[in-house]
Specification:
Layout (H helix, E strand, L loop, with lengths): L1 H26 L3 E5 L4 E2 L6 E4 L5 E3 L3 E2 L8 E9 L3 E11 L3 E4 L3 E16 L2 E2 L5 E2 L12 E5 L2 E2 L3 H10 L5 E7 L2 E7 L2 E2 L5 E2 L2 E17 L4 E4 L15 E8 L1 E6 L8 E5 L5 E9 L2 E6 L13 E2 L9 E7 L7 E10 L10 E5 L2 H7 L10 E4 L2 E10 L2 E9 H9 L3
Parallel strand pairs: 1-7
Antiparallel strand pairs: 2-5, 3-4, 3-6, 6-7, 8-18, 8-25, 9-12, 9-18, 9-20, 10-11, 12-13, 12-14, 14-15, 16-17, 18-19, 19-24, 20-23, 21-22, 23-24, 26-27, 26-29, 27-28, 28-31, 29-30, 30-31
Length: 411
């Protein structure tokens, strides 16, 4: 009996070890974008190793040395088990070490979705006075994006309304995106009491707001901003954009933050000047091309290096932000913690506002300050991303190298 229990325990341990290795290997990225001279962090369990294209073993630990990134260009790494069983390839794109101009100016954001975003559902009262739910059992959920109806591309809410009405109540075929997977379903529109055919879906095709421009890269005229993605207010899903505009904004009011009630910068994006085009909305911020550099009113001579993560230290730093329609100012903060191996979200550093002038104006970190560049030892190290709602003096920042890599993917 004891022997059987022992075998069961060994089997469970064996399966657990296999599971741990499977999870670990799946977490190794298929592609890495690095900066020249940067140390790359890659978690490797015992028995796993990394080789370069010449079949030379680089490391068997979590920190790969900078020999991989000693020159710019593309290379390939091979992950092996016990130096003989190939597990996967990792493509590495090494970017030249560069300088950027920290900006810190407030700007307006206008995003236009790729397709229309489903933000809600409701019953329809038909012209027969009965209640209908055309969307029921179709698979469509809030947060999904409708991209085609009857093979016609849907770019706006007007497109959707027109196409549904032209169906004259016949079944329509809908192509939609659910969690990055394209799916299809059929739906029967209902003629409502106003004689319009409807699906019972509430949809949105655009979003607008204000945020802070983080940096300008003069090498390719790109910018990074916000440090976090723009999500839909109803679904909390990252908005899949087709295009976007970056415009100047005028600050109207600053609502001071307090515990449990984060403050915000209120501004207008109406009748403002164009800054550039937005082409990416990611969990690490929004990115695009600057068309009108003069609208940002920045000093192009103030380029500074993007810091390696190994150069970032806990202690004093500054953030650059604009709170009064004037030139951005530097305010003191404290970097409390650094999460050097975090490439998965935008909480790379925990920060605390210590500047008394900033605290008197805002109470700490408020909405609209996201994207404010963080500077330490005259190097760009990151951008403000989040506030701790119950402690508005504290929040998080994303690493600058992550934002630079996102911007460089545009070209």
């Amino acid at each position: 009996m004891k022997n059987k229990n022992f075998k069961k325990i060994l089997l469970v341990l064996f399966l657990l070890i296999i599971y741990i290795y499977i999870v670990s290997i799946s977490n190794i990225p298929n592609e890495i974008i690095a900066i020249e001279g940067e140390n790359i962090s890659m978690k490797l369990l015992l028995g796993l190793s990394v080789k370069n294209e010449s079949a030379k073993t680089i490391e068997t630990t979590s920190n790969l040395n900078s020999s991989i990134t000693d020159k710019t260009g593309k290379t390939k790494l091979e992950v092996n088990l016990f130096d003989s069983i190939k597990i996967k390839d990792v493509d590495v794109d090494v970017l030249p070490k560069t300088k950027v101009i920290p900006v810190g100016s407030i700007a307006g954001v206008k995003l236009y979705t790729s397709g229309v975003l489903v933000v809600g559902m409701s019953e329809i009262e038909g012209n027969d006075n009965k209640k209908y739910k055309p969307y029921e059992n179709t698979g469509i959920k809030e947060g999904d994006t409708i991209v085609e109806i009857n093979d016609r591309q849907i770019n706006s809410t007007d497109d959707l309304i027109e196409t549904v009405n032209s169906s004259a109540g016949k079944d329509i075929n809908i192509k939609y995106i659910h969690q990055e997977q394209t799916k299809e379903c059929s739906m029967l529109p209902v003629k409502s009491t106003d004689s319009q055919y409807k699906l019972g879906l509430w949809v949105r095709d655009s979003a607008a707001g204000v945020g802070t421009v983080t940096f300008y890269d003069s090498n390719n005229k790109t910018f990074g901003a916000l440090g976090h993605g723009i999500t839909d207010i109803d679904t909390n899903e990252l908005i899949n954009i087709a295009s976007g505009e970056f415009v100047t904004t005028r600050i109207l009011n600053i609502k001071k933050g307090e515990s449990g009630n984060p403050g915000k910068i209120q501004g207008t994006v109406e009748n403002q000047s164009n800054i550039g085009k937005i082409s990416k909305n990611t969990k690490f911020g929004i990115y695009g091309i600057i068309d009108n550099l003069s609208s940002l009113n920045i000093d192009t001579s103030k380029e500074i290096e993007v810091a390696y993560r190994d150069e970032i230290q806990t202690g004093k730093a500054t953030i650059l932000c604009s709170l009064d329609n004037q030139q951005p100012k530097e305010y003191e903060i404290e970097i409390e913690k650094i999460y050097k191996e975090n490439n998965y979200d935008n909480k790379s550093m925990k920060i605390k506002v210590t500047d008394q002038e900033l605290l008197s104006k805002t109470g700490g970190i408020i909405q609209g300050m996201s994207g404010s560049p963080v500077i330490q030892n005259n190097k760009f190290i990151g951008a403000v991303t989040h506030v701790l709602v119950n402690t508005p003096t504290e929040g998080y920042a994303v690493f600058g190298d992550i934002m630079l890599k996102q911007a460089r993917e545009i070209n």
